[in-house]
Design a protein that fits this description.
By secondary structure, the protein is an alpha+beta fold. Helix content is about 20%, strand content about 45%. It has one domain (about 5-110): Thrombin, subunit H, CATH 2.40.10.220. It has one helix at about 90-110; strands spanning about 15-25, 30-40, 45-50, 60-65, 65-75, 80-85.
Length: about 110
């Protein structure tokens, strides 16, 4: 279990939005695995993943509307990872993506 720079989690440029979105990530070696995005911002995210990730690992992560984005794992702790995107999601695209994620969360909770 790698801790990385946990102080980086408090050094965010903008607040994160809580979400619960299932997606897929591909590691640098090509292995694909499921992950659940727990919070997002235009520059990063936290996710739950059963995969083995260490600070400095690179992932290709599928985002709704946006497509695949590259991210660097900044920290890993107990099945959770914090990642920084290699490019910032444009604000308009970010807002549309969030709207889709939040709408899906609301629909899922209404069915439960």
């Amino acid at each position: 279990m790698a801790f990385g720079n946990l102080a980086a989690a408090d050094d965010r440029r903008e607040p994160r939005q809580t979400v619960l979105h299932r997606t897929r990530a591909r590691q640098a070696g090509g292995e694909e695995q499921p992950m659940t995005l727990v919070d997002v911002s235009p520059r990063g995210f936290m996710a739950r993943s059963d995969g083995q990730h260490a600070p400095g690992d690179w992932l290709s992560v599928q985002f709704p509307l946006i497509g695949v984005l590259e991210a660097e794992v900044r920290w890993s702790l107990g099945g959770r990872i914090g990642c920084q995107l290699t490019r910032t999601i444009e604000l308009a695209d970010y807002q549309l993506m969030l709207e889709l994620m939040l709408r899906a969360m609301k629909a899922a909770s209404a069915r439960a």
